[in-house]
Design a protein that fits this description.
The protein has seven helices and two strands. The chain is mainly alpha-helical. It has a two-stranded antiparallel sheet. The protein is elongated.
Length: 203
Amino acid sequence: MKLSKKGEYALRALIELGIAQEVGRELVQVTELAGSKQIPIKFLEQIMVDLRGAGWVESRRGKFGGYRLRVPARSLPIGQIVRAIEGPLAPIGCVSQSAYEPCSCPDEDHCGLRMLMMDVRNAIAGILDRYTLADVVEVTLRKMRRDGLPLPYADSHVAPRPVAVPVSAARRRSAAAPASPIFPARLAPVEGLIKDLFEDYTI
């Protein structure tokens, strides 16, 4: 499964609104959302209309207007968001639970490919349906606090200024080292793994 840009930006926007809610910011302007995540503003405005239509966000017009979550972040499973924006999680139609389509195989019950793709579908759904928007917001804030970064939206209505994050010597050495066959140079193997931040993580 690969997220489209629309799906990626929608999730980023919802996470940002969840962060704003956690730090006590009532409304976030679309220009702030776009600028903080380097999202084309016109594209983001269209996405926010869709998120509002889904009932997940609400907006207020005016100089000090903006967007906020309409529903508790705890009530929004990531899988529900992804399905609404991207469609079924299944890599092929014959293993989809929400949009089943028969494939060209004459014997689905004994199709090895279908069994394999069912495992793929179940693994993806198992992760995306386990965590809610609140979980992703929590793990984001936890990591920012751990690394001593200022929390966005915490002090004013002004968009936060970019913060220069010092690069550790270890990370510089890692960036200079050749890519391993398992992890490309751009991706540290321990970064982004929710299991490292949630002690009870299991699929």
